[in-house]
């Protein structure tokens, strides 16, 4: 009888939930203003959260040495402003020069790519293995042209979007300031929303989420930055053209877990192939060495066992999130999954605990 009662309640709750979802779908137009507000606020709050976890260890380090928290935050902001100024003075001119040179040289690069393919096709071994693909170079050149055009349009759209929302994005440092200043009290406000008997569990969940996000964001930034530096040094040693631009692109793509290493290597190999097949070999050596150091030395040392996500799960998450929400979805997929997983696991444990208590009684 007890089992039937539980099953009946479960069916009623499920039907009620489905009915609520159905009614919301019928009045979805009422939520459009909220959707627009969410789309506007998501970018600055994501950036603010990123800076919060990035800067919080430094704030704790300074406050533990008896420095006032507000003074510590302002000091960190001043240092970051100084680093940004140095970047724009030292690195930015070289980067802009390489971007302009790359944009002006696109037709020449495509011709060079086609020439290298023709040279490979003229090889006897390749010709014997692919006797019917005489137009392979034309097809691949067209594909490369399409990729470069698409990438250029995407970059243009991104720059346009950043320009359009520069005021919104500029609010991120302000939000992160208040998060750093009052970050310890923010989780307590969520504890008032749950029943008092679950307060301890709620606090433990919030602490676990905070630890997981902090480890992932901080670790990912450190690892990606070091990987980018290693690749840039390697590209300079082998003499790869546009080394700074290519290293930055590869570094940004490597932020994406697992598949980011493959995506980051693609532009490096393409530029290297335009120079010569030998340069491709050297680029692959640099990329593989850097990624091996990152995977076998840096990641275990920085992450440890805090990131427990199967690679297949990560790939599925990234594919689904990218299809649903684009680049923002790809960036937020792993942190969102970590938060949801922690909450679901804790709820499941509480459910089992309550079930055991009922059986004991």
UniProtKB/TrEMBL annotation:
<keyword id="KW-1133">Transmembrane helix</keyword>
<keyword id="KW-1003">Cell membrane</keyword>
<protein>
    <submittedName>
        <fullName>UPF0118 membrane protein YubA</fullName>
    </submittedName>
</protein>
<keyword id="KW-0813">Transport</keyword>
<keyword id="KW-0472">Membrane</keyword>
<dbReference type="InterPro" id="IPR002549">
    <property type="entry name" value="AI-2E-like"/>
</dbReference>
<dbReference type="Pfam" id="PF01594">
    <property type="entry name" value="AI-2E_transport"/>
</dbReference>
<comment type="similarity">
    <text>Belongs to the autoinducer-2 exporter (AI-2E) (TC 2.A.86) family.</text>
</comment>
<keyword id="KW-0812">Transmembrane</keyword>
<dbReference type="GO" id="GO:0055085">
    <property type="term" value="P:transmembrane transport"/>
</dbReference>
<dbReference type="GO" id="GO:0005886">
    <property type="term" value="C:plasma membrane"/>
</dbReference>
